[in-house]
Amino acid sequence: MPAPFIEFKRRLRWADADAAGRLHFPRIFEIVEEAEGELMREIGWPFDMRRKIYDFPRVHLECQFKRIIALDAPFRLLFTVGKLGRTSIHYDYQVFDEGEELAIEGTMTVVVLRDGKPAEIPIDLRAALSGLASKTTVV
Known about the structure:
With 139 residues, the chain is α+β, with helices and mostly antiparallel strands. It has helices at 27-42, 47-53, 123-130; strands at residues 5-11, 54-55, 58-65, 74-84, 88-96, 102-111, 113-114, 117-118, 136-138. It has a single domain, classed as Hotdog Thioesterase (Thiol Ester Dehydrase, Chain A).
């Protein structure tokens, strides 16, 4: 089965735009974090459950802006599970403009911590992220 993914279809909100009326660059990370939260909730690992035993800090972020997303313009974000390491989860994301042109792409890597130390990805979480318990959601 393919790895799970989340797809958001939105319009660029006033709060996410800069003075020039386009996506303010740090806001993409908040949108990506929202997608991660939705994905984790869908596979049965909501943020509140994760914080009881495990922590998932971001250790690496990349983002390449290719096209402008203007104020009130529709866009689609696709957030997917990429590579699973022993203690890390690598996500990929793409943002497409209203013409379905790739506007933004990037990656985010989180490390799994338990008691403040790197820990192996729990078996059930690995299965869910690998698509063995695949769920796909359009939000």
